[in-house]
Write a structure and sequence with these properties.
By secondary structure, the protein is α+β, with helices and mostly antiparallel strands. It has a domain at about 40-110: His-Me finger endonuclease fold. Helix content is about 30%, strand content about 10%. The protein has helices at about 40-60, 95-110, and strands at about 70-75, 90-95. The chain is elongated, with a radius of gyration of 22 Å.
């Protein structure tokens, strides 16, 4: 026997539910899967607030690979997945294209 349609639990709304007991209007947006594990959230704060700015200054706001100065990102030299650390010695400044190429090379090695 099919289930009876239910209405949105928000006060005053009589629309049918779609997700999480709410209608299209009130339903929470679909969330993308989070790639950051809970154990890395504290480390990421240190990375963003301390390590990243220091690496940018140390590398003179230039890509360590090509010397470019646009679309800069700070990357782990040795990826965390391969035993790298969250320290300044393991950080380097790369432009977005160089970072993409390095990431592809790192994934091929795993």
């Amino acid at each position: 026997m099919p289930r009876a349609a239910s209405i949105c639990y928000r006060p005053g709304c009589t629309a049918r539910t779609v997700r999480a007991g709410q209608c299209e209007t009130h339903a929470p947006a679909e969330r993308a899967w989070s790639r950051t594990s809970a154990r890395n959230k504290a480390r990421n704060r240190v990375w963003d607030r301390i390590i990243r700015p220091r690496a940018l200054v140390r590398d003179n706001f230039a890509c360590a690979s090509c010397g470019g100065r646009e679309e800069l990102e700070v990357d782990h030299i040795t990826p965390i997945a391969r035993g790298g650390t969250w320290t300044l010695d393991n950080a380097q400044t790369l432009c977005k294209p160089c970072h993409t190429r390095k990431t592809i090379r790192d994934r091929q090695r795993l």
